[in-house]
Amino acid sequence: MKWMFVQIESPAVEKGSPTLGFRVLSSWFERLVGLLGSGPSAQPVVLMRCGSIHTYGMTYPIDVALVGSRGEVLASERALPPCRVFSHAAAFCAFERPASPFPWPLVGETLRVNSLLFEPEKSAQPCAALPEPVREVAGS
């Protein structure tokens, strides 16, 4: 299982913004499914090579950020309800999570990748066994 950890860079965000963690979905099938079939406690995901998402079939609202190839946030929506489409022609990837009060990237901000992590030994474990992905990482 691959994880991407990013920080929000913006003049409005003070030094030491929280590090956000996302499970990387890169295959066609993984991107097709996304958060579909999950619940409000699902892990955040990033859909690679994705400029448009939909929430048809979802049972809860999600936070979405569409990001360009240089990390620039092109479109951002908090609590996008079910049965909607959200897209941007220049988007390279889509960050999604169940709607949450935690920090979320806004249009005009930039996402800086801190690290990519591959944990083959954890990929066979249930999702509940993985570390909580959306929290401030100690020392950042």
For the structure shown, list the relevant keywords.
single chain; 140 residues; mainly beta; seven-stranded mixed sheet; two-stranded antiparallel sheet; 4% helix; 39% strand; disordered C terminus
Could you give the topology of this structure?
Elements: E1 2-9, E2 19-25, H1 28-33, E3 45-48, E4 52-54, E5 62-67, E6 73-80, E7 85-87, E8 93-98, E9 110-118
Parallel strand pairs: 2-3
Antiparallel strand pairs: 1-2, 1-9, 3-8, 4-7, 5-6, 5-8
Can I get a quick summary?
By secondary structure, the chain is mostly beta strands. Mean pLDDT is 82; it is low at 121-140. It has one helix spanning 28-33; strands spanning 2-9, 19-25, 45-48, 52-54, 62-67, 73-80, 85-87, 93-98, 110-118.
Describe this structure in words.
- By secondary structure, this protein is mainly beta.
- The chain is built from 1 helix and 9 strands.
- The protein has one helix at 28-33; strands at 2-9, 19-25, 45-48, 52-54, 62-67, 73-80, 85-87, 93-98, 110-118.
- A 7-stranded mixed beta sheet has the order 6-5-8-3-2-1-9.
- Strand 5 (62-67) and strand 6 (73-80) form a beta hairpin.
- The two termini are 23 Å apart.
- The relative contact order is 0.28.
Radius of gyration: 14 Å
Distance between the termini: 23 Å
Report strand %.
35-45%
User: How many strands appear in the DSSP assignment?
Assistant: 9
By secondary-structure content and strand pairing, the structural class works out as mainly beta
Q: Give the overall average pLDDT.
A: 82
H and E string: EEHEEEEEEE
Reading side by side through the largest sheet, how are the strands ordered? 6-5-8-3-2-1-9
